[in-house]
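COMPLEX REQUEST
Ligand: guanosine-5'-triphosphate
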Amino acid sequence: MALRKRLTEEDEDQLREWLGKPDAGFELLFKASTQGYNSATFHQLCNNKGPTVTVAYNAIGWVFGGYASEPWTSRGSYVQAPDSFLFRLSNANKFDPLKIPANQYVQNCLYDLQDRGPVFGGGHDFQVFTGTYQANNGNFINANGSSNIGYTYGNGMGHNVNTFCGGNLSYLDVEVYSIGKREEKEVPIEKKMLQEGKEWRKVQWSDEERERLKQQVAGYKPQVCSSVSQVNVLLVGQVGSGKSSFFNTINSIYKGRVSSQAMAGSQPHSLTTRYRTYEVRGERHGETLCFRLCDTMGLEDANTGLDLDDLPYLLDGNVPDRYQFNAAVNISPATPGFKNMAGMKDRTHCVALAMDICNISVMPQGAMDKIKTIYNKALKRGIPSVVLLTKVDKACEFVAEDLSTVYRSRFILEKVKEVSEKLGLPEYHIFPVQNYSKQTSLDTQIDILALSALTQILGFADDYLDEHYEALATENLQKLNVKE
Ligand SMILES: Nc1nc2c(ncn2[C@@H]2O[C@H](COP(=O)(O)OP(=O)(O)OP(=O)(O)O)[C@@H](O)[C@H]2O)c(=O)[nH]1
Ligand SMILES: [Mg+2]
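STATUS: Structure written out below.
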């Protein structure tokens, strides 16, 4: 069974620095908490392995130990190893790391006896343990360790058992590492970034750009026909994918504060149970902007959630605002408020499929199939679809810290490609976004990303109107109503 290292990456870096070996790797040879505080086992596993590092972890969270520049071999004597040193690594008290060199009686640097664990120094400056104690598996153990700094190590430097290990030799663990070549670790894709300047989409991250996009969206008017004064964007997607939050994000931008008009939150079942056709008011004159964001109940795996049989009516604009979704009864012309005479102005002009970026790869096939079905139903009507890839802040640490790195993230790029492939949707219809979720004030970068997505959505809605100009002119919608 592979032993699990307790030594942190940060502490390894510190040891590399002290050793002057940036390429040093630390291979765990012996771990007392699982193999026992057993001197014979220590020698069996650590003898003749070259220089070693012994690291102790005590009951008050201090990490300390010694570097043996010569190998252990059970010589039965002291060993001259002047490059050896004792050390204290970062610890619970956040002291600076400390290196205590061998500066006196260097012929006594190591005491290499078969019936003792590692012993450093002629005064037994640090005797890690002696004899045999059982494995303590995460409990603390007093294994007869002792420390008497200042004989071989740190002579005249003022160090003692308190500065070395907080005066505590009750161990959580003791580990011994050999020093080899550092393994090239595979960097997980979540941490891979493209170089600056190599973004896969170009965005200007400035207040001016936010303002420009904001004005562009506020000034948007459907191009083709005066009968459509607002385009309808249908938000659909799995429960919790961020549909309502996307509306809240756009609404916040124009309200000038983080707003939560649409209920958003994490629940096993959809928090949104009513169909809502949200409008957004412009900041300056309070005029209604020329789009509606139509929020729906979330898709679920089983027979709950949005029923795909209701979808044609949503696409065709038959469903009244505030319609209460009902798992037991599908929408039909008998539904109260059903808009029988739905015209071009009522229809969906663009479908926005909200998908949580962290779920893409683990999404059950059934859920992906539902999204595909929605996309295909829209496609049959000629309605364009986009994907809002939400929660990008949860996908990568560096994106969480600085959203302007979103187009340098390989992980996000990979997800865009994955979604594009799974749905058969071009990549330029897929928009990574971060919705307001925990922020209390507006954020330029969040706004730029959301507004960029929205300007594209409005453009696609215009394309749809352009394409169906003829039907629009005659309101001959019959051929557009596929009802499937
Ligand atoms: N960190 C983060 N959280 C988000 C983001 N978008 C949404 N959330 C959170 O995810 C949860 C679900 O968001 P909602 O907007 O309610 O999702 P929904 O798709 O409307 O869900 P239902 O109405 O239940 O189907 C909420 O707790 C949001 O705050 C995002 O981009 N980043
Ligand atoms: Mg919702």
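REMARKS: The chain has a mean pLDDT of 91. The chain has 13 helices and 20 strands.
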